Amino acid sequence: MIKEGVQPLDSLRLVANYAAQAPCYVCEADNTYDAELCRQCYAPMALSHQAASQKIRPRLLATIGASGAGKTVYLGMLMDMLSRQPDRMQMLARGAFSITLQQSTASALARSEFPSKTPSEPDRWNWVHCQIRSPSFKAPLDLVMPDLAGEALLEEVDHPYTYDVIHPLLSKCAGVLILIDAVKLQSGSLDQDYFTMKLLSYLAEIDERPRHGWARRPIGFVLTKVDECEECFLDPAAFAEARAPGFWRQCRERFRNYRFFASGVAGGCAYRQTRAGLVRVPLRVEPRGIVEPFEWLVQQVKS
Ligand SMILES: Nc1nc2c(ncn2[C@@H]2O[C@H](COP(=O)(O)OP(=O)(O)O)[C@@H](O)[C@H]2O)c(=O)[nH]1
Ligand SMILES: [Mg+2]
Ligand SMILES: [Zn+2]
User: How far apart are CA 224 and CA 77, in angstroms?
Assistant: First the structure.
């Protein structure tokens, strides 16, 4: 038993801990120190704690595009490839949560399935915090990337501030990859063209500063599913110009730093009858053009 001396009460300790607030890395709302997700935007609070524990602030990048454009498959495959290849660019995941996206994509593809659709609720999105190393970099680059749902993006673009996470995220992003379904463009559907035009005007209006705004930030356009659209793989810029004239023009008029890429994860697809009905499944995994757009974006962000 202690007769003399000051013994802090447990309740006081609790109050002190709760008084210490941590700002969210994305939206900057104050959160209690033990919150798992930001109470306002649902970004993982681990991002803030990890950023606070190191000297360099991680840069934010985003992969955006319509629902079904192939964002989840692309990002999951990219992470898996970067975390395994010893030469070129390497990725080191920071925090266990950063591995979930690549794990769920790789395990679905190993079962000859595509990963399930990204839920539109932000508290269920996967985030990746990683460190990128490359023989051409002097110091590693810390990056944070979420896997957003296309429905949420569309809702936000049509009705700004519906989702607390998207506006602050895209304001702070150093660059984006915009994924566009090449198969839909090839079929003559203009949905992808309209959606990309909306995304581009949303970005342009988020930050209109001539030097630091989106007009000068890097934008990589990635035309996806090239296994079903060889024409696009050969010359993605010419394909976009011919099939998506709306966003092509907008891009030339409003943005300075952009490039076109083509990518594919599957090597052919088929339909399989399941209890849920007919589902599209990959026949083989044959990644093409996965690392190139990301490598370009990272180099632009670094320079
Ligand atoms: N042919 C083909 N289809 C793909 C490829 N990647 C994705 N898909 C199809 O597109 C669907 C949506 O992909 P997903 O990554 O979930 O799109 P998201 O909504 O943008 O995240 C998948 O279920 C597949 O049917 C690909 O590389 N080739
Ligand atoms: Mg998705
Ligand atoms: Zn937040």
Answer: 13
Residue-level pLDDT at 1: 52
Do both 172 and 46 map to the same domain? no
Do 47 and 160 reside in the same domain of the chain?
A: no
Q: How far is CA 131 from the centre of its chain?
A: 15
Is-contact 195 156, C-beta < 8 A? no
What parts of the chain have a pLDDT lower than 70? Answer: 1-19
96 and 200 in a single domain? The answer is yes
Rounded to the nearest angstrom, the distance between the alpha carbon of 121 and the centre of ligand 2 is 12
Residue 142 sits in a domain of what CATH number?
Answer: 3.40.50.300
- Locate the ligand 1 atom nearest the alpha carbon of residue 268 and give its number: 1
Q: Write down the pLDDT at residue 16.
A: 60
Counted domains in the chain: 2
- The ligand minimizing its distance to the Cα of 262 is 1
Residue 255: per-residue pLDDT: 97
User: Is the C-beta atom of 67 inside 6 A of ligand 1?
Assistant: yes
Spatial separation of the C-alpha atoms in residues 200 and 224, rounded to whole Å:
18
State pTM to two decimals.
0.94
60 Cα to the center of ligand 3, angstroms: 13
